[in-house]
Design a protein that fits this description.
The chain has 101 residues and is mainly alpha-helical. The chain has helices spanning 30-58, 64-90, and strands spanning 7-13, 19-23.
Length: 101
């Protein structure tokens, strides 16, 4: 593996729950683009879920079942967002692209 071929943490786990990695030598390849799309989807869903959480918490009803479901969804979304952040923190910035911080 060359210095350019680093490993990218993918936004999904393997069948046994272990992390999946991709050699980043071909950043424009199919799996790399698929991972980019999944990461964008995960971040978008987390943003929508955050807005939903705000609405649920602003509501005066104390529906414990809905709060439990919300907590489970927020946990899942946070797991995905942390995985994206970890992956992006490890990736070198491609030439011609700037990392948004």
């Amino acid at each position: 593996m060359t210095a350019q071929d680093e490993l990218r943490l993918l936004p999904w786990a393997g069948p046994d729950g272990k992390p999946c990695y991709l050699s980043t030598g071909d950043q424009g390849g199919y799996v790399s683009r698929l991972a980019d799309h999944i990461e964008a989807y995960q971040l978008g869903m987390a943003s929508q879920l955050l807005e939903h959480a705000r609405q649920v918490l602003d509501d005066d009803t104390e529906d414990l079942e809905e709060l439990h479901l919300l907590a489970a969804q927020l946990t899942s979304a946070l797991r995905g967002v942390l995985r994206v952040a970890t992956s992006r923190g490890r990736r070198p910035v491609a030439s011609g692209h700037r990392r948004r911080d």
